[in-house]
Amino acid sequence: MKEQPIGICDYCLEYIMAEDWYTSKGKPRQHCCRDCRNTANSQAGAQIRSTKTLARIAAGEWINPATLHPPDPVNVGIGVRRSILGRIRQGVWTNPALSQAARKKLSRPRKHSGPLAVAIDRLDSGSKISDLSEDEATAYRTWRKERYSILKSTQSEEDKAQRRAQWRAYWHRRRQPHVGETGE
Ligand SMILES: [Zn+2]
User: Fold this and answer.
1) Would you say the pTM of this structure is higher than 0.90?
2) Which of 4, 33, 50, 116 has the fewest CB atoms within 10 Å around its CB?
3) What is the domain range of residue 178?
């Protein structure tokens, strides 16, 4: 049912072009555009969907969809990236390193010292292994090998299999064009 006067969008209250005041079936047009129509319909349905879900939960019939389709780490990564890009476009993104918790963490004493600390810093800020000095590269390689062997010795077979599956999925996606790069 049309709520606003004819020619006014029920959702955003903007004017509707005169030639669009009526639908092809001769009924007063409710919304000015597809976006308003979709949003209004979705909001109108929210209460119904919520009531139905609550009833299903009460009856013990509801299953968390995440258990049916466990989140794929690659998809989660793409979603996070898209959300950050969106917040940057809207100008509401803030640098996480400036948060209270991050400042506290960053002001802790360094974990490593000497050439290794320098190497990690330089690699973090975009240098390649080949840009490092002999000492730094050696310290970094030794440290990385140690970490890897510790990881291998503490990982269960199940963890290893899961890790391998994640890598396979990751490399498979890498071969396909990126999603979320152009923004929509
Ligand atoms: Zn509208």
Assistant:
1) no
2) 50
3) 111-184
Q: Are residues 74 and 50 in the same domain?
A: no
Distance 86 CA to ligand 1 centre (A): 23
Asked whether residue 85 falls in the same domain as residue 47, the answer is no
Residues 38 and 58 in one domain: yes
Residues 119 and 160 in one domain: yes
Q: What is the pLDDT of residues 63-72, one digit of tens each?
A: 888 788 777 7
Q: How far is the CA of 19 from the centre of ligand 1 (A)?
A: 15
Residues with CB under 5 A from ligand 1 (ion): 9, 11-12, 32, 36
SS3 of the chain: CCCCCCCECCCCCCECCHHHCECCCCCECCCCCHHHHHHHHHHHHHHHHHHHHHHHHHCCCCCCHHHHCCCCHHHHHHHHHHHHHHHHHCCCCCCHHHCHHHHHHHCCCCCCCHHHHHHHHHHHCCCCHHHCCHHHHHHHHHHHHHHHHHHHHHCCHHHHHHHHHHHHHHHHHHCCCCCCCCCC
Ligand 1 center to 90 CA (angstroms): 21
Residues in the chain with pLDDT values less than 70: 176-184
For ligand 1, the distance from its centroid to the CA atom of residue 51, given in whole angstroms, is: 27
What is the domain count for the chain?
3
Spacing, Cα 88 to ligand 1 middle (Å): 26
